[in-house]
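All the exercises in this workshop are built on plain-text protein records. Sequence and backbone structure share a record, each on its own labelled line. The question running through the whole workshop is how a given chain folds. The record below serves as our worked example for the rest of this section.
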Amino acid sequence: MPVKLLESAQERTYHEYVKKHPHSTIFHTLGWKRVLEETYGYKPLYTILEDKGKIVGVCPAFLVKTIKGNSIVSQPFAEYGYPLVNRVEDIQKFIEFYKSFDADVIEFRESPFYPIAHENKKLNGYLYYLDIAGKDFDNDIWHGVYTKKSGIRKAIRKANNSGIHVCETKDIDTYYSFYIKRMKELGSPPHAKSLFTNINSYVNCARFTMCYTYEIPIGVMLTFYHGKTALMWNMASNLSYSSCMSNDVLYNEQIKHALDVGCSRIDFGRTQPRDSYMRFKSKWGSKQAILNSVHVKGESIDKKKFLFLSPLVKHAQRVLCNPYIGPQIKRRFP
């Protein structure tokens, strides 16, 4: 029962397996595969495990050329990337398969709800999540989770008085302009615009939203709805309108929408240690969990070491945060 690379003829059954597996994520899907193939040209190493002609396990991964050499990563730029299996002991078969490649680094990104048994793990950030199964927005969220101390209700009321409203959007140009500005503020090389256009094209469960004060856009958010989970993956806002509380409004709207479409969990996305967003995410009644990277071979670039770029970026933003040059840097740090 060997692990083998996914072939195009097996993509339909792969898709069905991922769709039904309770621990699958958007990053396991073939839509995400196509996004990274077309955006960054990464070589996919998606694999399957069969038993008597039936898929009993799958794993998404890419071969990426980084500054440390060839890396096999599951998954680039993602909170999560790991084998999905019927039997937990079969995870080791995928690990052994990827070890057969000539790669300097082999890395999986585990979920706290689906851990991988391995001795070499490294902190990859923190997850903040809110379980909303069976909850009513007015009774359980607005008058329960949103405590007086959190200040959320006050912020939303203030925003409503400022004419704030949220709409779904397909305006990737405006979305990307917010994103680029935010990356410059953070001093971080940005993704290519094509990442977002490809997400819009190939990820059916992606929801782009934009926050307005009257007719002026002041904030944007990208959320993935996969299975019963809503993953808030990316957000940016215009700091000149911070008094309008666009971040609070966007979060609140996504929680309401997630309840409306039957989600059972809100995933607020990965947060790096000591990030200012830790406090913001915790006020939504969320729980914290550890996100680990599993290093089967070698180690990827330490995020702390990656931050050495930040001073350079701040002094050369026009170059490193350029929407054409920046993505060429970004693609080497998956």
Remarks:
- The mean pLDDT is 93.
- The radius of gyration is 20 Å.
- The CA atoms of residues 23 and 100 lie 26 Å apart.
